[in-house]
Design a protein that fits this description.
This protein has one helix at 2-19, and strands at residues 31-36, 50-57, 62-84, 93-122, 125-155, 160-174, 185-201, 204-219, 223-234, 237-247, 252-257, 262-267, 275-293. It is mainly β and 294 residues long.
Length: 294
């Protein structure tokens, strides 16, 4: 609500200035270049979407526009857990340490072509309505790695015996995020809108839009590749050494016992996550849309 009130305050301030400058005439120009962003959004973790837009003024009423939007975000999270109970019983204890690192990457692309009809000019204000259609895509990927090292120590009577385990796991995600919350998406959209530009100084303007957006999209099927290696020692002598691989794209899982030169391969059922979605929503692009008319 505070964001909406701030937006309305900016527009009302512009209308007040326009009323006090009734003799102002909009500058003449053929091409406007503007940058669109939402400075009032708290959601900076998804897509920092910014749109570069070109507006071709056929005359003072008819405008054709082309928009290109790009967004990206990357994140890294480390989670460390451990246990050490040597202080409880120094002759029989367990220690271990596990570090999990999750890295995510998100990308976005938006292409839109539209038309504006500028129906009213009031001082520094320029009112318009229009329609737009285009294509939007979102791309996701990530990795998750787990490093584990642990030891179990007990007293066998003749002295302490230590069993040590080291494990490394890496999972690479393609067309999806590691938590499976989002998958690559391709959409087409259509908007109808009304908006206003306020010319701050000569050809420099800010603006806002309010409209209805229709979007129909499809999420593709993401997949991941899993790799694990593990070694276990008693004292300094190795007891087991294994590796496991799995691909959710093919469903093939392979387990190898490196000490005994043994391997086992199986095929598992793969789940298809693809889906379609359609939605209709009212949207607002609060000021600032910042542009310059040439």
């Amino acid at each position: 609500m505070k964001k909406l009130l701030l937006t309305c305050t900016l527009v009302l301030a512009g209308m007040t200035a326009a009323a006090q400058d009734g003799g102002y005439h909009l500058p003449d120009g053929l091409l406007a270049i503007e940058i669109q962003a939402n400075p009032f959004s708290n959601d900076f973790k998804t897509f920092k979407m910014g749109e570069l837009k070109a507006r071709l003024f056929l005359n003072d009423k008819h405008v054709v526009r082309l928009g290109i939007g790009l967004g990206f975000d990357s994140d890294k999270d480390d989670n460390i857990t451990s246990k050490d109970d040597r202080s409880v019983n120094p002759n029989n204890y367990t220690t271990w340490n596990e570090t999990t690192r999750t890295e995510t990457k998100s990308r976005a692309l938006k292409l839109g072509l539209g038309y504006e009809y500028h129906f009213a000019h009031r001082g520094r204000l320029d009112f318009y309505l229009g329609a737009e259609a285009g294509y939007e895509a979102k791309f996701y990927s990530g990795t998750k790695s787990v490093v584990y090292s642990g030891a179990d120590v007990y007293n066998a009577g003749s002295g302490p015996v230590q069993t040590t385990t080291n494990r490394n796991e890496t999972t690479s995600y393609k067309k999806m995020l590691p938590d499976a919350s989002k998958y690559n998406e391709h959409s087409i959209f259509a908007n109808i809108f009304t908006g206003v530009d306020f010319y701050v100084y000569k050809s420099l303007y800010i603006g806002t839009e309010l409209g209805i957006s229709f979007k129909s999209g499809k999420q593709v099927n993401g997949y991941y590749d899993y790799n694990k290696s593990e070694q276990q020692y008693i004292g300094s002598q190795i007891q087991t050494s294994t590796s496991t691989t799995f691909s959710s794209e093919t469903g093939i899982r392979t387990h190898r016992d490196l000490i005994h030169d043994y391997s086992n391969t199986s095929v598992e059922q793969v789940t298809d996550h693809s889906s379609k979605s359609t939605n209709l929503k009212i949207y607002i692009e609060p000021a600032l849309r910042l542009g310059w008319l040439f």
